[in-house]
Amino acid sequence: MNGLLLGWVIALLSAIIWPGLVPLPLLLFSIPAVVLLRRYPLLLGWILGVTLFHLQAHRLVHPERPLHSGDVTLVARVASLPVGDEIYQRSQWQVEAINGETFSLWWPDRVTLGWYGAPVLALGQRYQLQVRLKPPSGILNQGGGNARQRALAEGISATGYIRNGLILEDSRHWRGVLATRLANQVSALPRGDLLRALVLGDRRGIGNDRWQALRSSGLVHLVAISGLHLSIVAGWVLWLGRKGLSRFRPSATGQGQGVLWLICGALVLGYAALAGYALPTRRAAVMVLLALALLWRCHEARPWELALRAAALVLLLQPLAALSAGFWLSFGAVVTLLMLNWCRPPPEGRWAKLGYLLYLQLGLALVMTLIQGAWFQTYTLQGIWANALALPLFSLLVLPLCLLAGMMAIVVPEWAATPLWLADQALALVTVLSEWALWAEQRWPLLGGHLNSEAAVSLLVVLLALAMGLLRPWRTWPVYLMVLLLVVGWRLWRPEPPWQLHLIDVGQGLAVVVEQEGHFLLYDTGAAFVSGYRYAERAVLPMLRERGAERLDYLVVSHSDNDHAGGVPAIRDALPVLAYRGLGGACQGEEQWHRLTLRWWRAPAGPAEARAIDNNDSCTVRISDGVHSVLLPGDIEADAEALMVEAGVAGPVSVLVSPHHGSATSSSPGWLAALSPQWVLVPAGYRNRWGFPHPAVLARYRAIDSQVWVVGQEGQITVGFWPGQPARLISQRRHRSPWWYNRQQDAK
Q: How many Cβ atoms sit within 10 Å of the Cβ of residue 584?
């Protein structure tokens, strides 16, 4: 059985990168399953896992699935607590019918939709909606998140926005009603946002400052309902139940124990239901219930077998769970503890046990830092002391008090004021520790912050060397020395060009980074929205941190349009800027920037009609090393392009960033003929509503034999310039992350 489950888990995890082995499983299925099960269980498990993974992925990305793209009419229910305000709301919807017809249960039926000017949505309401759908998509850059991967992991078939909607049924889901009731009860409490998160998994009220403090302290997991919370509930129920049975109904045969275990399992499921059965909660509930079942039936199971069974069951219910960070964090923690316990069994003695707990926490903190660095590009070294202080009190006092107070607020709100106040005071421990950690990190930045991929790989190699030193698979020092030298070789193995251009994926906007030997120029910052979402924070700054930027030599803002200048405040707050150009600075003349020459140009003032919008006022810059050159033209249109040709500043370039996102009002034939670019990079968002790049513009590029890459299709595009060699282009989706779940169709 262990071999079968191990093969199953290995297949599902490896299929993340290589899922297309369908012909091989089908061929191997021709061998009698009984023979495989008896003689080759690992192989059979692998076959079953790969097949199931492929079927699940096929349902979500098949181009003929009903919920795919285009304008459709849906009948759907609100399936998640809406996030947003009176201007914009976003939530998941469970679709019941599309264009008047129900569809097969085979196809996924969940979508994520945004709605501008929406009514106040409530969980469980049923609407008829006119929507525009597109496949799950998102920006993809170095150091940033991956929205498409997250959507597929959650079973989202499509995303989009609602044009208009008509309510059909104003039924309210019980969890939404409870969330509203509890929010009203705790609105005046200083830590009411944390109470809502712990009782109902409703984290909508937690602000950015609170999240930052929790990240700095490594205590984020305390406000995300997981296996820790469910285990605490199970432990309290079993302890109280056994105390009650021993006092009120003692029995030498253990009468009543079965009922106690069933009640414990029911309460664990009930708490998971309060949290909305999100993916991490389902995963945690599976593991806790399996452990309870094994303990109840007195079946002995080694810890690694419990983890294996839990992983197999979770992946059976949700094969794409391995695409989520929560899966790796949960099982990474379990496997780490198992390995540490295997390497060093628990000792005897009070002080020895204290040292053993410190050893476990140190090892767990290191591994969790690595996993968090890989997924979120952040780390904190303060999780060790913060968790050591918070976890005991959280388990014994804070969580039980919060749950009891929350239940009273929901069931008997007139009696809940005092318990809620007490729970709020108990949560002060979490907030005080997190604020101390944030203060310490601000004073000593090395305690936490961004962790780029090279640092994560280096840390992985060091941990591997330490593990080899503990396990001693080879008792010779040259082996450990060789592994440690890989850290140094990692950087030498990847030499970088003297300078690079990075066209960042910021949707339908523009952000370009020019990098040379540790110095950075940022041209435009992407858009900012009333919802609070800013591409500068989600894409530009993570990418700059990944590249090791500590400051900007230049911040260039071509003009005032939101899709170019929306992120300026975020950039200024995050990084020191030595010089400004364009909007807020000069844009004329020529200057030397280390090895590169910068030639600034802006069209002279023209007729008012041409300035109805300030696209033609864009500050343009030509960057050259004497052999290679790049032109960043902002949003200039045909009028400014003609003036550029007349002024004699439109000479040949190696790389052109397409003006105005590939609009038909730009990239005029005469201007393109003067530039004759070898490469054209188009900053157009995936399936944008304007249809950029325009087909006529693409035809003009092809007419001069330019090679065209669209950022919405490629993700971040990096161009490296080497002396005496042609420019080399790297696509985030095509080269750095060429996995199946990152592929997006044509940007049109």
A: 12
